[in-house]
Amino acid sequence: MTDDDQSLAMRYALGVADDREIAAAAARLDSDPIFRAMVDRFDDLFACLDGDIVDVPPSASLWSRIDSAISGGEAPQVSSGWQPVAPGVERRALRSDMPGLSPASLYRLAPGASLPPQPDSRISLLLRGEIDIGGEIATSIDAPVPVPAVREATVHTGAGAVMYIRSF
To answer: What residue ranges do the domains of the chain occupy?
Structure first.
């Protein structure tokens, strides 16, 4: 399986695939047992996230920015959401300050970057790339890799990586 196959299976299992990707994945599910097994692994892996998702209505300020943009007002400034946290490391909050939910973030590590220990992490997954934690190498070749040692050790990457970390 290629990285594109893995990405398609992951996006399909997470429910974030576009219409073209959904059609491609659906066609392969019946004819490709290896692809089906990959989707099933992702379904199992991400099942723990399912109960934590709640609908959050858009804020009034969002609707006013949309209305302003539609009516010819100045286009709103949109942030990518990535914030620098260390040299070569960016963090994008997926959710925070939501009652009853643990904060979750994506971390994007540039080649050669290091992520300091994350002592409050509850779930850590390597989504893409390769990392070194205290001499132990983890790669995301076939599926996201659980990385529990991220609580105690600094994460180093030579080629770059993307990680999902949910805190207490």
So the answer is: 3-50, 82-167
